[in-house]
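Q: What would this chain look like folded?
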Amino acid sequence: MIVWINGAFGAGKTTTAGELVELIPNSTLYDPELIGDGLRLLLPPKALDEVTDYQDLPIWRRLVVDTAAAMLAELGGVLVVPMTLLRQEYRDEIFGGLAARRIPVRQVLLTPDETILRARIAAREESADPAGGTGSGSGSAPGAARPGGGGVGGAVPADAEQRLRWSYEHIEPYHAALEWLRDDAFVVDNGPLDPRGTALRIAEAVRTGEAGICQIVQTPEPAAETVAAGVLLFDDEDRVLLVDPTYKPGWEFPGGVVEAGEAPARAGMREVVEELGLTLDRVPGLLVVDWEPPRPPRYGGLRLLFDGGRLGSADAGRITLPGRELRGWRFVGERDAARLLPPQRYERLRWALRARERGVVLNLEAGVPVG
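A: My prediction, written as C-alpha cells:
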C-alpha cells in the first residue's frame, strides 16, 4: 500500500511523512524527488533543456511507478510518499500505473490556510542551507536542487529571493487544482497542527479506512502479446473522435483489448458502448492491422482500427463517459490529432485515414505499411 501525501510546496508534506513512518508499522519513506535528481545526472542536457520540471519527463513518471513497485516487492508493508502532484493527467498516470500493479494508493491532501502556507514558505527559506536542500517533495522546486546544480536542466533559480518568489508563484496552480484534488483525497487542514499532530491524524485515518483507496481505473498490464480493437467515429466535417483516458498519457481512440473468444470488430463495438454509451447499428469495417513490436516492459501485439462511420449531432449529444476511466472527448482534425496522440498511435490513425479515403485495408508493421 502507498500513502501519498499531496499538497502545495511548503504545506509540510516531507516533515509529516517523516513522522508518519514512525506511526505506521513496517512503513518506509519513498521520495520520488530523488528520481528527478538522478535523471538530472543521467539524461543528456538536450532532454533536460526541453522541460522546466522533471515531472514533465515521461521517464520520471514511469520510474516513480516502477521504483515504488520494486520497493514494495522487496520490503513489503507501506510506502509513505511526500510528493506534490498538481497536474491531473500526471496524477492519473502515476496512480493508474500503480493500480495496474495492484498497489492501492491512499491519497492525503494537506490544506493549510494560505496565510499559514506563505508563512511556512518564508520560514523554510530562512532556514534553508546554502545549497537549497530543503526536501520539498514538489518536483523541480528550488528546494529540490542538490549541490552541483539547479533543478531539471538547471532551470530552477538558485538565488534565495528567486526561490521564494518561485514558491509563492506555485500557490495559484495549487488552488486551481484543489477542485479535482479533493475528489478522492483524504483532506487534512494541518494549519493548526504540527507535523506530529498531522501524522497522528493521517495514521488514524489510514487505520480506520477513513482515508480511502483512490479508485483510479486501470486494467492489469498484459503478460503476453495482445490484440486490441479501436473504432474511429467521425462527425460531418470528417473529424475523428478521440477520448482522453485518466490512466495513461495522451489521447486515444475508443477501444480496448479483445477478450478471449471475442471477435475483434465486436470487441470494438463493445468498447464504444462501455466508453461512450453509444450502440453502433452495424459491424464496423476494418481499416488497418498494425503489428506493434514488443518494447520492454510492453509486449506489443496486433492493433486493429475499424471505421465506425459518422455520428450525427444527436448521437454525439448522447455520449456518456465513464467517470473513472475517461475525462473527456472531442472531434479533431488530423493536425490536432498529431498533437494529442502519442506518435505511434498517430501513425496508425494517419494510415487508417488514408485507407478510408482509398477504400482499402492496410497492413502495417510498427505504423509503416508493408506488402
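The first strand starts at residue 2 and ends at 7.
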